[in-house]
Amino acid sequence: MTNDWVDIKNADVILVMGGNPAEAHPCGFKWAIEAKVKKKARLIVVDPRFTRTAAVADLYAPIRPGTDIAFLGGLIRYLLANDKIQLDYVKAYTNAPFLLNEGYGFEDGLFVGYDAEKRRYDKASWVYQIDKDGYAKVDPTLADPNCVFQRMKKHYERYTPEMVERVCGTPKDKFLKICELIGTTGVPHRSMTSLYALGWTQHSVGSQNVRSIGIVQLLLGNMGMSGGGVNALRGHSNIQGLTDLGLLSTSLPGYMTIAGDEEQDLKGYLEKRTLKPLRPGQLSYWSNYPKFFVSLMKSWYGPAATKENEFAYSYLPKVDTSYDVLRVVELMNEGKVNGYICQGFNPLASFPDKPKVAAGLARLKFLVVIDPLATETSEFWQNHGEFNDVDPSKIETEVFRLPSSCFAEEDGSLVNSSRWLQWHWKAAEPPGEAKGDPEIVGELFSRIRQLYAKDGGAFPDPILKLTWNYRIAASPHPEELAREFNGQALADVPDPKQPGAFLAKAGEQLATFATLQADGTTACGCWIFAGSFTPAGNQMARRDNADPSGLGIFPAWSWAWPANRRILYNRASCDPGGTPYNPSRKLIWWNGQKWVGNDVPDFKVDSAPSEGMDPFIMNAEGVARLWAPAMADGPFPEHYEPFDTPLAKNPFGKVLSNPAARVFPNDAKAFGKPDEFPCVATTYRLTEHFHYWTKHARIPAILQPQQFVELSEGLARKKGLRSGDMVLVRSKRGSVKAKALVTRRLPTLIIEGKEVEVVGLPIHWGFTGQARKGYLTNTLTPPVGDANIQTPEYKAFLVSVEKA
Amino acid sequence: MALETQDIRARSATTTSVPPSARSFQPEVSKLIDLSRCIGCKACQSACMEWNNLRDTVGTFDGSYTNPPDLSDQSWTLMRFNETEVNGQFAWLIFKDGCLHCSEPGCLKACPSPGAIVQYQNGIVDFQQDHCIGCGYCISGCPFNIPRLRKEDSRVYKCTLCSDRVAVGLEPACIKACPTQALSFGSRGEMLLQAEHRISDLQERGLSQAAVYNPPGVGGTHVFFVLPHGDRPEAYGLPRDPSIGPMLSLWRSTMARTLGVFTMFGVLVAGILHYMRHGPLEVPGDGDENPGTKGAET
Q: What does each C-alpha distance from A734 to A203, A326, A356, A730, A782 come to in angstroms?
């Protein structure tokens, strides 16, 4: 979230699209209801299904799964064409005035530089025009045909309301009504918040779905505002913490990145990531990358990380490619993975294309499952009749099940969608042989290290020299880990502004990431967490529920990264002169000497408005990007059909599906065609269950006992189905059987003049637990992911439905 | 005598006056169910099971989100999901079913077992299973179809409005669990006022028929609803004008009692006249039967 759960209460308009918070985030959704009841906010829901969120919405419109960019592109066009944008904001705080290289272009569904063989873009021409001082050229009048604003206008010209109706199936009048309401927030004193979740991310165009709403919110001037923002509602407890700590194959803690194979020296690695300002007077905060990185290496390798050995840079793996979940399953199937440790994860149930996952797991030599529950993955080799029809005698994978504790059985912090690190305390001892995750990993590491110490190895240093100064080596305490993430001074750190004074003394916990140094005098396990465990103690354990501003900021409740800031980009809530756009919801302001306010300023606190520093300090441009060349699949979001699509042709251009999405050669035949699989399916969660966990508990099993499939009345009529009938749902990957729920909440859409049925598949059942046994829904989903980050396309694919 | 028994306003099958109130002030409590804020998450259902230690069976899917399929002796509250059309527009009405704690409870009036159903001074209608005879009259006496017979012990169960929690100053479990404050609990006056506020907001949003459901036919209820479509209570599964059935009213009315007393006396007088005229009826082994006592049982 750029904003905060509580901040939703300040919104004037709430757009729920790509999410279903009333069902998937019922506790957080209270703030949407609060906004409706106390602030007369209007709630818009755009969803393929009429959900429980739609049940309390003021406006609802259906949409075909996988066509969000068409809808949002239409919205962008509407805002531009009807002058509903906040023009001053757009001019001052976005890259709308930036001039693009003449060579950049877009034609027939492709951006310039496409290499069909590699399915990748050469982005050499996706650059700004640069002046002689190395800065990007701009046209403040936005008139230059090569400026981002004009290019954007041109790009979205094709996204007419008629096209939205043809492609999304959203009736034109409903679409326009929604546009009109959203357009009312393009003024300084009104804000719209956008709430989304996996309904946007789990697509082959997932990242671009989110980019689209970013553009909308920037055009409306809703970024940095109280009651505004682009708010990702994270799916798992602490999944925000997972990304913060870089538990992805190409990430390092604090959104730093793992070096590629070609980056063998530290200098080159750092230079590439130390972004210099692209406009005069800009902060470009990533220019501090070396401080964050060196402090991380000091945290990991302590005295073994020295200036002379490039702070142990050579100890880190360099990757040839992304080892995301889809690739790992592919590699398993190719016989290139021997062992797999899965901790708090149920890949057989959670990954797409279950038959492929099962085949991959069967080729492993060993599988370790660290989990509090008997997951399907840990029993993938067991025959569970029709639900998991395997022959155990043919599977040689050795499976180790290590029972772990649940959250209430351990101390620690959880990071929520609001970026709050909230400390929690152990309430009970784990049962039986279960142990906390740090204890399991600690013991595993200690034994592996002993083996390396005894037997040596090809490259033992990264293991032997890792800092491991825990009181009990085999069981690091969460508080010790938290202190490490926050970081400490390894030597006295002098204050450059006050000679003789120190920012921190040796051995002290750091109070802020501003203290971090690139010379090895500070250690910090995750720079954005610096400030969470200071000399004043554990800030995450704070529980002061005072809200002095009344804006729901609660500054002394837990601790939010970065720097306890609750609303990101809050400098943009003021006009360039430093006066809040919305006087009734002031976040920060310039008081003549410095930036002060109700929230922690997301800005250089002593930079006067007259200095011209812009609000988006993490960007080299200083402003937000309407046009973003970092994306793998194009600087502007463009509609592409899902890989399983009911259409033969993309109505927007000549390219059917995302040209930059990765498709493994073995999977080329894994996609369905509409003649065999005519219905569009989408998968989702229900309030009553949490993923594949709560079916292990009695009460949720009572509340939603058995697997079902949601079908429109039209489809039911065509297939002679009634609610409660058993149906067979097939995709190109496999099939599942479940009971039918015939409902008017699922639409029959008219797409390109033809009827298209939407089929809804909740995911929660499996072959272990207390609920009735069911099929793993991901038997059906396709093995393709987002072009940028490989999040699988669980939300839009083709199936056929018949009576079982 | 436990203190709580002295806070009773009405008691089933009891003609004598209720015990005196031990406390000088007992405000009437109420639960407000604001369906415009309800997202059907079933947290209330779950909390009810947890607090009251109820566990229904893990059932089957029966073609609806409503699970279990009906109220039962193990499910005292239930989210019901109704797909319907209101003013030509599709609406998915989510409704929380359960006891409404009527001011004039049909169940209590119907109950023939003394003290099996009581109404506390605070308005809560509670079943005392130790006095329940399992006759099921309360089930037919309820205009909302709430009480459920438990086969195992032949007693009837329903929502207690967590009278045990309320007695010690806590809100009912469902209220505590509700994430969107669709459920609120407080004094009856406060809750009615809050409901009125909500109606004006809903009307401003174009829900011109929004209304409070607090039916006068049962003297008003201690659980009342904000209905976004107040003109269509049936769409939610609520009766439009619930009342205690005419037979039941008659049975429990003063007239019925007077009639009963007249009958009793009539039978007694007839018996005496019969005796005076014919002398004692002589049946071997059954000499003491007095027909008058039979009449008194009516």
A: 20, 17, 10, 6, 10
Q: How many CA atoms lie within 13 A of A678 on its CB side?
A: 13
- Which chain B residues contact residue A707 at CB under 8 A? 61
Q: Is B88 helix (H, G, I), strand (E, B) or coil?
A: coil
pTM: 0.94
- pLDDT tens digits along A129-166: 999 999 999 999 999 999 999 999 999 999 999 999 99
- Consecutive H or E run containing A110: strand A110-111
Select from A40, A699, A744 the Cβ nearest to the Cβ of B201: A40
The DSSP secondary structure of A285-331, one letter per residue, reads GGGGHHHHHHHHHHHHHGGG--TTTGGGGGGS--BSS---HHHHHHH
Produce one character per residue of A570-592: b if its CB has 16 or more CB atoms within 10 Å, e if not.
bbbbbebebebbbeebbbbbbee
Nearest Cα residue in chain A from B200: A37
Going along A558-606, which residue ranges are E strands? 559-560, 588-590, 595-597
Class of domain B3-243: alpha beta
Neighbouring residues of A470: CB distance < 8 A, sequence distance ≥ 6: A442, A476, A477, A480
**What letter represents residue A666's amino acid?**
N
The interface residues of chain B toward chain A in range 66-85, judged by CB-CB distance below 8 A, are: 67-68, 83
Return the CATH fold of A6-93+157-236.
Dimethylsulfoxide Reductase; domain 2 (3.40.228)
∠ CA A362-A368-A371, rounded to 5°: 120
Q: B180 at the A interface (CB within 8 A)? A: yes
Residues of B in contact with A26 (CB under 8 A): 39, 41, 43, 179-180
Element (H, E) at A148: helix A148-155
ipTM exceeding the 0.85 mark:
yes
Distances (CA, A) of A455 to A460, A467, A474, B58: 10, 20, 20, 54
The two structure tokens encoding residue A610: 């007259």
Whether the CB of A742 is below 8 Å from some CB of chain B: the reply is: yes
Q: Are strands A13-17 and A42-46 parallel, antiparallel or unpaired?
A: parallel
Per-residue model confidence as pLDDT tens digits over A591-638: 999 999 999 999 999 999 999 999 999 999 999 999 999 999 999 999
Please state the domain extents for chain A.
6-93+157-236, 238-415+419-565, 665-803
Round to whole Å and give the CA distance between B99 and B109.
Answer: 15
Q: Which CATH number fits domain A665-803: 2.60.120.1440, 2.40.40.20, 3.40.30.10, 3.40.50.1820?
A: 2.40.40.20
Q: Which amino acid is at B120?
A: Y
- Domain positions in chain B: 3-243, 253-296
Sheet holding B117-120, edge to edge: B8-11, B117-120, B125-127
Q: Which of A51, A55, A188, A100 is nearest to A635 (CA)?
A: A100
Q: What distance in Å separates residue A30's CA from the closest CA in chain B?
A: 4
Q: Do A37 and B201 touch (CB under 8 A)?
A: yes
Q: How far is B74 from chain A (nearest CA, A)?
A: 11
A698 and chain B in contact, CB less than 8 A = yes
Amino acid at B45: Q
| Dihedral sign computed on CA atoms, order A554, A559, A564, A565 | negative
- Nearest CB to A701; choose among B45, B58, B62: B58
Instruction: Write down the architecture of domain A238-415+419-565 according to CATH.
Output: 3-Layer(aba) Sandwich (3.40)
Predicted pLDDT of residue B295:
40
Give the tokens for residue B99: 């006891």
Q: Which of A34, A58, A688, A703 to mutate to test the interface with B (most CBs of B within 10 A)?
A: A703
The count of other CB atoms within 10 Å of the CB of residue B164 is 15
What residue of A is the nearest CA neighbor of B202? A37
B285: pLDDT strictly greater than 60: no
